[in-house]
């Protein structure tokens, strides 16, 4: 549904996005992650046809952003990281205005407004002024606006920023619901734990370059290997680390600050049991052993260096 | 003392002004205007004997010009005093500091007042130059400077108070302009049969009137004392600001906002009922927004104008606009001034149209909709016309009444109908020119406040032409209109295309051309984001 080909954007001396190649299938929720200034917003703006790429291009639903922006706009719902609202309008008026801007006329417009208000659970606020809504409500209103013309692709730039935990969970559930409705969603966020729960694929960008793009499981496995183990042995940990690191299924072995032995097991290993067997055979009886859970934050921290362009 | 003067706030705001290039641009424009006026007056001396009187005339006019320019800038600077803090949610933070209410009000007021005084002081060397030629004494220059400062005092105090009560800089500035315009409009209170006719009462009722009369008569004798009322009034306005400041955090001022929203809601109801309005959502949105504070301001202005004139008539006074007819020239000057007010309103409204969307962050949301540049610009233009149109009708109705009643005393006979048609045609072109100018400024700026400020600078620059090149003015057709009218008055309708007036024709064509350019440039700007070479 979304495919970028060597997408590049240069601002004077700064390359905000460099040869970006991502591919997002229909119905995916694609988490777009990166440090501040990595190029996420620039990429989303280019996909939304609001910014012309310096070179390269992108296709949304088969339409080129460089020559078919009208068709692309019909296809997308765009929610910027900072979006304004017309504060002196009522909630229903705000949505009716954008419906009219999308040339939705007559009874259809009223019906659609009613539907999106129901979907975003804002029906009871329809006669409230937009300025009277809380931040979370305004974000939901933003999502309602995005859905007003029933787009196939949603480009959401930090939709959950600044929200309290409840509002974030509500937004997350709403996005899952939209995925069930067949929408393709590209979402950038800093709240990685939540992205991990709803995304089925991710892209990690740093300094404008794509560090990783693909299935969430794949990247997890890449980082985790078969498993990450923390082991307490009876004996010198350093010697144990030196001994086990030569094993063909061990990719990394080191001593942690707590004096524990950290072992990363290769994804080629059949299981994790060989580690304990090998250590015992080498003369390091095991006192305790636990497997570390890997989440998206670990993935992000291991794949990025924390630099910005 | 620091606490009383709000020194920290004063420094913050003054430093903010002093590092911004646009304030130097404004100062440059003012100095340019006054310097050109000075040069033209000096080089126009026939002989040295007549120079003394010319310089005296110029000396007074200089300060009148300066006061007019500062009156244009003062409300705008002061109208954002508190609104800028409210928009950034910083007013509460200031309130919690040890600065206190006095410090906040005085700091905000003083920063604006000092800025205007700096502007006024920067123009002093030119005024002092008059001393070398003669005709005006140092004492007179000093008093004139003090009187201009008093006018600044009033503009800043009024703007500061309104900035506290209202929620948009433009609206607060417009209300300040309207109040000051009302005070200026009092300059003909002498007419009629009221008990104050020709007495000091007239001046004490409206001290600004005294400033006006002083410039006309070029003497201080009976006029400077009533101006003591100006600082007294300013202090009272500041006192009111001090008293109501805490209400901003309570229910008091919120109820003002709620009241405005309620009024807006009442008047906007019909828009939701009518289905057809949705065919043009941009126009709908603008009209909906207009029915808020701006609409209320214009509504209050019209009602106040009617009440004001009605009361004057009841007690035997007259305003010049509806009073006894004097000469055709007086009528035209008033018409030009009222039209100028309309043009000012139109430019300011237009200058916020696109910059406001950018500032609010709503522009990207509109750019990704199927709305085209033409639809967007036309929708906005229709909205502005709807807003300023009713006000623009006033001078046009006036000129039609003039033409039909044939009241003006022409030296030679003219065709009133032809004159009215000509006036309206030129006024309409000028109106659209100002609208286009505001739009163009708006699309080049990212902040509504900056856009309106630049509009004001442009208007100040245009004022240079207003005062210096009447009749040949390419932009301010109001002066072109005056030139036409004076020419008609002197030579009759069959000969109105005199050498001065005929030059206005190419300028008129140029103006239409520039207007078209503004339009196409605005549409193109919007479309560069949308079409991008489709």
Form type of chain B: globular
End-to-end distance of chain B, in Å?
64 Å
Please count the helical segments of chain A. 11
Q: What percent strand of chain A?
A: 25-35%
Oligomer state equals: heterodimer
How would you describe the shape of chain A? elongated
Percentage of β-strand residues of chain B = under 5%
The average pLDDT value of chain A, as a whole number, equals 82
- Class by alpha and beta content of chain A: alpha/beta
Cα Rg of chain B: 24 Å
Which ranges of chain A are low-confidence, i.e. pLDDT below 50, for 5 or more consecutive residues?
A: none
Secondary-structure map:
The complex is a heterodimer of chains A (309) and B (534).
Chain A: E1 2-11, E2 14-20, E3 23-24, E4 29-33, H1 40-47, E5 55-60, E6 63-64, H2 69-75, E7 76-79, H3 91-101, H4 106-119, H5 135-147, E8 153-157, H6 165-180, E9 184-188, H7 192-198, E10 201-206, E11 209-215, H8 216-224, E12 227-233, H9 237-244, E13 250-255, E14 261-265, H10 273-281, E15 286-291, H11 296-303
Parallel strand pairs in A: 4-9, 4-10, 7-8, 8-9
Antiparallel strand pairs in A: 1-2, 1-3, 1-5, 5-6, 10-11, 12-14, 12-15, 13-14
Helix pairs in contact in A: 3-4, 4-5, 8-11
Chain B: H1 2-5, H2 7-19, H3 21-43, H4 48-79, H5 83-87, H6 91-96, H7 100-122, H8 124-133, H9 138-165, H10 169-185, H11 200-205, H12 207-217, H13 229-244, H14 252-273, H15 281-290, H16 293-314, H17 328-351, H18 353-360, H19 363-367, H20 373-405, H21 416-444, H22 448-468, H23 477-491, H24 499-530
Helix pairs in contact in B: 2-7, 3-4, 3-22, 4-7, 4-9, 4-10, 4-12, 4-22, 7-9, 9-10, 9-13, 10-16, 15-20, 17-20, 17-21, 17-22, 17-23, 18-21, 20-21, 20-24, 21-22, 21-23, 21-24, 23-24
Gist of the model:
Chain A is built from eleven helices and 15 strands. Chain A is of the alpha/beta class.
